[in-house]
Amino acid sequence: GAVVSQHPSRVICKSGTSVKIECRSLDFQATTMFWYRQFPKQSLMLMATSNEGSKATYEQGVEKDKFLINHASLTLSTLTVTSAHPEDSSFYICSASGDASYEQYFGPGTRLTVT
Amino acid sequence: AQSVAQPEDQVNVAEGNPLTVKCTYSVSGNPYLFWYVQYPNRGLQFLLKYITGDNLVKGSYGFEAEFNKSQTSFHLKKPSALVSDSALYFCAVRDRANQAGTALIFGKGTTLSVSS
Predict the structure, then answer these.
(1) pLDDT confidence of A103, banded at 50, 70, 90?
(2) Tens-place pLDDT, residues B87-114
(3) Contacts of residue B103 in chain A, CB cutoff 8 Å?
(4) How many Å is the Cα radius of gyration of chain A?
C-alpha cells in the first residue's frame, strides 16, 4: 500500500517558537493532504485540507495564521505551528489522497510538546 | 451532514472470545466506510473498507465488518480476540457523492481491551 511519512515523529519546543512538521507521500502523488489533530484518547479533528498548488481550506475554529499549511508539491505538505503555546501540545496526523481516490493514507503522527 | 457514531467508549472481552465494536453512520447518499486501529502514540493503521459489493468485508488481522444499509451500521467483528488486539478503533465515513479529496469523518473511537 501507499506510504506516508511524517517528520519529526516527536518534537519538544519552547513557548513562542515555531515548529514545522513535514508530511510526505513516498510512493504516490498526493493531490490532497489533510491535517488532523488528536487529543489524548480522543478522535481525530480535521484541521485543514490542502490541495497541491493552492491555499489550504481550514475548518471552522482553526486559526490559519497560527497553523500555516503549505502544499508546494505533489509529495510534500508542511504544517507550521507559529508562536507555539502549551495548549498547542497535541498529536498531529496527516493523511494523503491521490487523484480520484477514495483512499486516504495516514502518516505515523507527530507528537508536539510545547514547554 | 455526515456523521459517525461509536456508541461504546470501551469494549472489554476475554482472549479467545468473539468481539464486536459498533459503528453507525449517517450520510446523505451511499457511503464509503472504513475501520482504522491506533496503538498508543502511533498513527492510524487501515483495517478494512466497504466501497461496494459484498456486505461482509474481510480485512487485516482477522477482522471483518458487515455493511447493513437498513440499519446504517458497519460493526467491526473478530471471531476470536487476541490480547494484542487491545487498541483504539475508529470508524470513518465519506459520502460517495463527495468529490475525491474529501476528508473522512471519524467516530470518537472505541477502546478495545482484551484480557488474558
Answers:
(1) confident
(2) 999 999 987 666 556 788 899 999 999 9
(3) 34, 46, 49, 104
(4) 13
